[in-house]
Amino acid sequence: MDDDLKKSILKTGTTILGIVCKDGVVMAADRQSTAGNLVYQKDVQKVNQINDYMVMSGCGVASDAHRVPKILSAELKLKQLRSKSRPTIKQAASLLASISYHGIRQPSMIPQQAGFLIGGFNEDGSIELFSISPDGSITDVKDYDANFGSGMPYVLGLLERQYKKDISVKEGVELAKEALKSSTQRDTGSGYGIDVFTITKDGIKKAVTQEIIPEYKDQ
Questions:
Q1: Domains of the chain
Q2: CB 99, CB 71: distance < 8 Å
Q3: What kind and span of H or E run contains 157?
Q4: What is the per-residue DSSP string for 89-141?
Q5: Quick check: helix, strand or coil at residue 35?
Q6: Which of 35, 83, 165, 170 is most buried, judging by how many CB atoms fall within 10 Å of its CB?
Q7: pTM of the complete model
């Protein structure tokens, strides 16, 4: 990845993560939006369901993180209409990677600067998770990933120690909560709440939605 682009991405504040489980995928994120050193918003939902079988989350420049899912959703609908078949998660991830690749290489004063996680279930019942880096590279995630959000070091450190192969979705939800709590405690770019989604053969569910409220106590 280009050094200038990588440094710019790592300056953005957010935590997103995805965990592959034996019976599904867990995706989660915090709610804080930052503008430099300023907390700009406290209730941003960074994990979003883009259709009946797919969820994605983004980190990086807010405008790109909000714009790209809308583009991807529309392109997937067009692809389904043209082919008369539902795109797979891998096909959606490849399209997303192409959008990201194009976004940083077209002539522009400010190139696209956002990384994404995308997960979902295919018509054959298989469930997949992919990580798309800001440069457009794509990774088929087999265990867990946090892309390039500012909370990534805290999340990966915890998951490295606590993730186990064949973890259940129920266990994955609790692990995601702990990972986000670690991030929001130490990363200045993450906080104010968490959202956790599960993706299983039974569909997509929002498993956790919590708000972090500052409290002041007399000593």
A1: 3-208 (3.60.20.10)
A2: yes
A3: helix 152-162
A4: HHHHHHHHHHHHHHHHHSS-SS---EEEEEEEE-TTS-EEEEEE-TTS-EEE-
A5: strand
A6: 170
A7: 0.89
From 12, 14, 15, 88, active-site residue: 14
Give dist(CA 39, CA 104) in Å, integer.
Answer: 26
**Tens digit of each residue's pLDDT (9 = 90 or more) over 139-156:** 999 999 999 999 999 999
CB 81 within 8 A of CB 103: no
Task: Name the residue among 200, 207, 204, 206 with its Cα closest to residue 24.
Answer: 200
How many CB atoms neighbour CB 40 within 10 A?
12
Query: Is 200 part of the annotated catalytic residue set?
Result: no
Cβ(15)–Cβ(184) under 8 Å? yes
Q: 87 φ, ψ to 5°? A: -60, 145
